Amino acid sequence: MPEGNQEWAMWANEHAFISGVVMIMGGITGTIGFDGYQFAIYSIVAGLIVCLLEYARSCRRKGSTVERRFQSFLQPVMMLGSPITTNYYVRFVLYLVLCIPCAFQLPTVIGGISLLIAALIYFKAALGGESWTTAKAPKRQKTLTDRPPVNPPPRPPPEAVAHKNGADNNGYDPNN
């Protein structure tokens, strides 16, 4: 696939969303039995921010976007924060800054590294000219089922039915 046709934003969206979940789980683990619980609490808050930013998927160039459930409620919020929430350069810098404090506690390191990778993917998407756009759900046409079918159901030809019953071969019966 040529370099110009590759869409990096969808991959970055999924990766950043999972990074936010991992940051939340690492933060919960870090508050239970590790020193430096402040970094763990930071990881929980930063993970929630990342998950809220990444929950709404962007519309693809082809327009074949599969929306997440209840995404339509977050799309107006994302558009209100424009151009900060729709620009991938801003997300790159934001995630780069958010991942740094996660390196100071063991349970939050994996979430921080994962968010760093997501930031780099967003940087690649921004270099490719991509930006967040509202996904529009396709309108489904109502199907009418009160009309009878136009074509009859498929049936085998009469020769095949006769051959199955043993009355084939033009009346010749080898048993007689």
Automatic annotation (TrEMBL):
Residue ranges crossing the lipid bilayer per the database entry? 12-33, 39-56, 104-123
Q: Which InterPro entries match?
A: Cyt_b558_asu
Q: Name one GO cellular component term.
A: plasma membrane
Compartments annotated for it: namely: Cell membrane
- Region Disordered, annotated ranges: 135-176
The record's keywords, sorted A to Z, are: Cell membrane, Membrane, Transmembrane, Transmembrane helix
Q: Where is the composition biased (Pro residues)?
A: 149-159
A single Pfam family it belongs to is Cytochrom_B558a
Among the GO molecular function terms of this UniProt record, one is: heme binding
Q: Which domain of life is it from?
A: Eukaryota
Give the UniProt family note: Belongs to the p22phox family.
Summarize subunit and interaction data from the UniProt record for this chain.
Component of the phagocyte NADPH oxidase core complex/cytochrome b558 complex, composed of CYBB (heavy chain (beta)) and CYBA (light chain (alpha)). Component of the phagocyte NADPH oxidase complex composed of an obligatory core heterodimer formed by the membrane proteins CYBA and CYBB and the cytosolic regulatory subunits NCF1/p47-phox, NCF2/p67-phox, NCF4/p40-phox and the small GTPase RAC1 or RAC2. Interacts with NCF1 (via SH3 domain). Interacts with SH3PXD2A. Interacts with DUOX1, DUOX2 and TPO. Interacts with NOX4; this interaction mediates superoxide generation.
List the protein's name. Answer: Cytochrome b-245 light chain
Output the lineage of the source organism.
Eukaryota, Metazoa, Echinodermata, Eleutherozoa, Echinozoa
